[in-house]
Amino acid sequence: MTREARSYSGVGTLCALRPARASREALAVSELRFVRMGFGADAVEYQEAWDEQRRVHAARFADEIADTVLLLEHPPVYTAGRRTTDSERPLDGTPVIDVDRGGKITWHGPGQLVGYPIQKLPRPVDVVAHVRRLEEALIRTCAEFGLETSRVEGRSGVWVLGDPVEQRPSLGGLSLDFDPRLQDEEFDPRMNGPEYAPSNAGQRREDRKIAAIGIRVAKGVTMHGFALNVNPDNRWFDRIIPCGIRDAGVASLANELGRDVTIEEVLPVVERHLLDVLENAELKPREVERATA
Question: Which terminus has fewer CB within 10 Å in the chain: N or C?
């Protein structure tokens, strides 16, 4: 299969993993395209990427283009989904951009591969199924690099599972029986020293999220998407309560594998697995249960 690259509305590089189809009807049905918007020195400001998402979303809804995945890095930025509470934001007043996706607060920045799949789904839309497909593509990506990841029930995203509780090291010289997080639902790791920091979850052998997912579906077309931690400085997450989760942390491919991993080498792997999962999925509308008389 040949890879075709061409300019895309003045933004980034488009990699079509299938030859373009001529008819509007065909575009409405199939063909997944990848737009590499910018990385490294060309990282894309969050507002610029958000504006581009809305433009592509409108074009996809009108069947003017095929399903499209925007891929990029952002300069450092905190974004908050609709369910974010004030207590989860930075304590020092660092600016946060409030967005219209699901989920809570997270960070984007250098060393993190961000993907915004803009895909038309059958109605009624099955949002959970879409999230599971994104998770599957990222789980396969991590596996290709030699890292086993998983889902955690009740929590979206892709996770590196920690050790069983009884095998984890003690915190601050205290046994796990005295871990304040077990007794205090409002425990704040930001105010309790580096041993509780989300970026140190790997040292504590706890569950840690390597890829966050937050989406929005409008008019049957998806927006927002995923952020895969490749080699970021995870201390950025220590200023917030990442995704509103107080009893776990964050991970990256580089830290977990103990070697340097770059966006450049991860990018084509993510594209390949997204293509396989999203194009080969049997899209079905969510089943609606109707009450019987």
Answer: C
